[in-house]
Structure formats: structure tokens, C-alpha cells
Write a structure and sequence with these properties.
With 211 residues, the protein is mostly beta strands. It contains 1 helix and 11 strands. Strands 1, 2, 3, 4, 5 and 6 form a 6-stranded mixed beta sheet that branches. The chain has a 5-stranded mixed β-barrel with strand order 7-8-9-10-11. The longest helix is centred in the N-terminal third of the chain and has 10 residues.
Length: 211
């Protein structure tokens, strides 16, 4: 089982052009957010940080459950030497997203009809930039922000529930996962443990081989 981190990530800790009042995060919190970001070529803009630690407790480590798939507000576990607490971080996620500049017919090449700009990503609405030669899976009106389901032959859409079959030799384990974006033509999932895996989609199931 191979963790998948296909990130071209800039974790913004200063004010960004798309957000005001950006917050400075402790390095420990920035690190767990960057590891949890499940979108390629995305960046996080932290807006607010509210830690709750006992007096005299110096932060040494942070932990975050699950994956970051869009803007939101999440709890973060905080650990010090013999003490612990928690905090809330509110943030935006921005990534390059393609959108149609004119109506596109099903089966038509997408590239001539697209423009790309940096847009905020909200969970369940992941914009993508398709590779050269990608075709439209269906008719798309002007102004459509491109998602995986709009591209012919694309993998499962980010956020979709997917059965994950992990095999190692003669042993097979079935888990319920959630599809996450990891690039055109590839299929990845987030397991309940928070681990990222990549495999091949077959009959609606993601098959993951462990050496």
C-alpha cells in the first residue's frame, strides 16, 4: 500500500490575493494541513487559528483526522510535553481550475474551449485542468467549471464512495473508502484510517495491490 501525495503545495501563511485576514499558523499545524491536502496543485490559505492549550503547555506536535478536500473549518489535536489540547483552524483551498468559454458538445476536444484560473475549492466541487486531447463526456454549457465527471474516460469523482479491495498475496481485505483527486486517468482513495492509496478501478471497486 503506497501513500499518495501528488502535491504541488504552497501553504500560504501570509495574506493572499484571494483572502483577507490570513492567519499565521504554527509549523506543526501547517505540516499536518499540507499532508492532509488531497488535491493536486492546490494551496491552503489559513484564515483563522484558535488554539486551546493548558497554561505552560508548549506545542510540539499536531494531528488532523481525514483529508482536506476543500475550504472549511477543522479541529486539530495539539500535543506538548505531558500535556495536550486542541484548536480550530479555518482556511480556504485554492487550485487552478478550467472552465468552458463556450458551449462544448459531447465527444468534442475540451482544450480549445477552456480557460484556466485560480478558484476556491469547496468540498465536493473539485475543479480540474484536463490533459491535452481530453474529450467532453457530455454537452457542457459555457462557464462550466470542469470536474472529473465531465471528461470522457476519467476516474471516479472526488468525494464519491468507493469499495477498496486491498490484496497481498492470497489475502484480500475490503474497506469502504472515498475517492480523492490524484490526476487524470488515475484513481485514488482515502481509507478510514486516513491513508491514501492508488489502484485500478474495476467493476466499481478500487483494487489495490500490496507487494
Amino acid at each position: 500500500m503506497t501513500p499518495h501525495f501528488p502535491l504541488a503545495l504552497l501553504l500560504a501563511t501570509a495574506a493572499a490575493s484571494h483572502a483577507t485576514g490570513a492567519a499565521n499558523l504554527p509549523p506543526e499545524v501547517s505540516e499536518v494541513l499540507s499532508r492532509a491536502l488531497a488535491l493536486p496543485a492546490a494551496r491552503i490559505v489559513p484564515l483563522d487559528w484558535a488554539p486551546h492549550l493548558p497554561a505552560g503547555c508548549s506545542l510540539r506536535q499536531a494531528a488532523l483526522s481525514g483529508a482536506v478536500t476543500g475550504s472549511g473549518r477543522l479541529p486539530v489535536k495539539l500535543y506538548g510535553q505531558g500535556c495536550m489540547g486542541w484548536g480550530w483552524v479555518r482556511f480556504e483551498v485554492w487550485a487552478p481550475s478550467a472552465f468552458t468559454t463556450r458551449p462544448v458538445r459531447a465527444g468534442e476536444q475540451l482544450e480549445p474551449a477552456l480557460a484556466v484560473e485560480d478558484r476556491e475549492i469547496r468540498s465536493g466541487h473539485v475543479g480540474i485542468v484536463p490533459p491535452p486531447g481530453a474529450l467532453a463526456a457530455r454537452d457542457l454549457p459555457r462557464g462550466t467549471v470542469l470536474e472529473a465527471s465531465h471528461i470522457a474516460g476519467a476516474a471516479a469523482g472526488s468525494g464519491d464512495a468507493v469499495k477498496v479491495i486491498v490484496t497481498s498475496g492470497s489475502l484480500a481485505i475490503e474497506l469502504q473508502g472515498r475517492a480523492i483527486s490524484c490526476g487524470f486517468g488515475r484513481t485514488c482513495a482515502l481509507l478510514p484510517s486516513g491513508r491514501h492509496v492508488e489502484g485500478r478501478l474495476q467493476e466499481g471497486r478500487l483494487l489495490v495491490d500490496v507487494p
